Amino acid sequence: MRILIALLVVCVASAAFWASLDHRLDAPDWQGQFKGLSYTPSHLYTEADHDDHLTDAMIRRDLEQLSTVTKRVRTYTVGVGYGSHGMDRVPYIAKEFGMKVSLGIWLGDNMQKNAAEVARAIDVVKDNPTTIDRVFVGNEAIDVRFELTPEQVAGYISQVKQGINNKKIEVGTAENWNFWEEDRAKDLAKDSDFIGVHVLPYWNGVSSDQALNFLADHFEKIQKKYPNKHIVIGETGWPSEGRVKRGSVPSAAMEADYLRHFANFAAVHNYDYYIMESFDQPWKGASGQEGAVGAFWGIFDAEGAPKFNFTGPLTSFSQWPTFAVSAAAGTFVLGAVVLAFLPALALEGYLLVAGMVALVISGALFIADASSLRYVDSHAIGGALLIVPAGLFTALLLITETSEWALSLWRRRRVALPSAPLAVQPRVSIHVPTHNEPPLMVIQTLNALSRLDYENYEVIVLDNNTADDRDWKPVEAHCATLGPRFRFYHFDKMKGFKAGALNKALELTDPTAEHIAVIDSDYQVFPHWLKTVIPAFADPAVAIVQAPQDYRDAHESLFKTFCYAEYTGFFRIGMVERNEHNAIIQHGTMCVVRRSAMDAVGGWAEWCITEDTELGLRLFEAGYIALYTPETMGRGLMPDTYAAFKGQRYRWVYGAMQILKRHAGSIFGGKAKLTLAQRYHFVAGWLPWFADGFALVFGAMSLIWTALMVIAPKYFDVPLTALSSVGLALFTVKSVKTIWLHRAKVGTGFAGSIAAAVTGLALAYTVGKGVLLGLFTSSSPFLRTPKCEDSAPWTQILKISAMETFMLTGTALAIAATVVKTHLEDPADLVWVAALAVMAVPYASAVLVAMGSTIKLGRRPVLEPDLAPVPVYAKVNADIAG
Length: 882
Known about the structure:
- By secondary structure, the chain is α/β, with parallel strands linked by helices.
- It is 52% helix and 10% strand.
- The protein has 30 helices and 17 strands.
- Helix 23 crosses helix 26 (764-776) and helix 24 crosses helix 25.
- The two termini are 69 Å apart.
């Protein structure tokens, strides 16, 4: 019932949201004919179509249709010098329908092509003196394309006038309104029979309700400036799709609204005008001319179908019922599937997850609507091949993150670790692998093991490949003082990383040992550890009992305080939730494994640098159970430097990718005994790391894209708002989730939750690098995490975070370039800047943490005094002191 209530509430809210986007537009009907339409033939989808594929039949079909709404068309070229071959045929065919033609001559910076255009135009005018009423010599060649000077255009006007020698035909040119308001236009105006003014309020970011005032104001200014000239509105109109520019919102409804108002207004004021334009021109969008919006200025679409009505009611978003139904239906279906897989939650949890599903569905609808799939070409299809997988991945990540959020806060029942007292203590072999470790640190680890409140255990200390015997001889000597249950071994040239050492320890283990425990060399266990976890093995299906990693040096420095906050979240939130589904991550230290189960699956994997997690997955594949207790039963040491911290995380990520590649068949199919929940949790646990990998690639591509926007703005524009918003949504959800859950479940307070978020973000580049290299390489060496090191000096900050600093600088420059280039006129520009800023946050966090890691705050002793005196050789103390 709670699931149904949550779905119904969210579906109704989603439908209401889409309905709220629609409102009535107070647009008057228009039932007359337009004074003129600019004309380029329909069915032109590519530049090749535009340049080479025009026929008399295409033009005849179009003009027959246009003759029902206007008796005059304006062309832009005769198609001799600059493509559009065949446009010179328009006047010859227009006379069949009794239409007038305002002939266009295209001028550019190629004088030879200009001469050919002018010569052919003069011949066309002479052949059609009663059909052609006006000649536009050039179009925006001066002040938009900057290819000619006013003097040059004036010369071409004089040449055309002389060539046609017909006083009844006006000869002039067309430029944007701002050019004609400048003093430099006066001489050109003297040579022109009319002033061709382009007023397209969309390009000036004017809202539709102010567009007519904008047009009338500039028309009046130009009329006053040239009182003796015929002022002609050469272009005006509104796009039906494309980018928002400040207050200008392109849509079919806004186009209809503007044109209805303009046509009535122009009739009252007796304007001479041409509507921009007759048919949509997909080739403009495909070629990069005017951006994507260039394809959508027609009153008819590219196939000749009307895009809107000029009479009847008009609303801003008449398609809202389709979107509302789609959003509600999609939310209900997908939400039902997702919620059905969740265990029993409080209503708040179901509402949170269902709300995220609704956000994902509505986001997908926004992207589909904004992608302008009306005229699909190969480039759009290629882009979709990239966008669709990225969108699906983001949706999956948002839903999995929200599900973990809801489960952590509102799960109704929790699994508890069995705690029945032991009748007999089974033998436990505790393995402590070491390599180049500080002797005193290892000795104190062994001292803590000697105080275990458990009788039947042994400790095997296996030192591998430590070259300096001063690092392992004191440990060997100390083991001898702790009694026969402590055995020390040293081996040189051992292979197989840490797993190789652990496998060797298995060979040396007492055959009667039923359980194998692993303790890292820096961990000081609590006396009750084994007595607490061993009872859980009463169930023969249990192969692993895992206690959390915890640390005793969190207050040693601000850097370690931040690291502690980041570490703790996984063990207090993620592992607790995984335990509910028998899907925990085995993480080596503080872990006890049933010996027979380990033997059954083949021991530690020496090909993997995260041998602990890999063993845990193999045990799951074999059908065993793993249990987790959130109770701290031992504490170790964190990395002392940011470089070591990054190296440790890189190893974890790279190893995870090794595991994914090796076990992909078992996780995504195969005959393994993995449950659906186990498969889900392993994949969902890696998704945030994959997100960092994608973010790294996307960040690099974003810098390249922004550079191309600056270099070639004709072909590259800011990404769609809906697409840029994806990264913002993901960043927002993850940040809010981290802060909320840390405060609620970890108890670190607001400052601790911020510290956890910043520290996690500081690892984003390292994680992304680990994902990419882990997927495409297989030979990364085992990276030991050094302990008891001195902090790095401040002079090493740039070295520690070199790539993050580079990316931060590049992203900052990209933000500045976007602001300067776009002036943030389009909301998409602002969203892109926000998206770049979000991309910069992890890099800035890395630099901040790197700086913090060099600050010493009154260093406390890391190696805490033992709870009870244990003999330690003088040589050890001498070595440490030295």
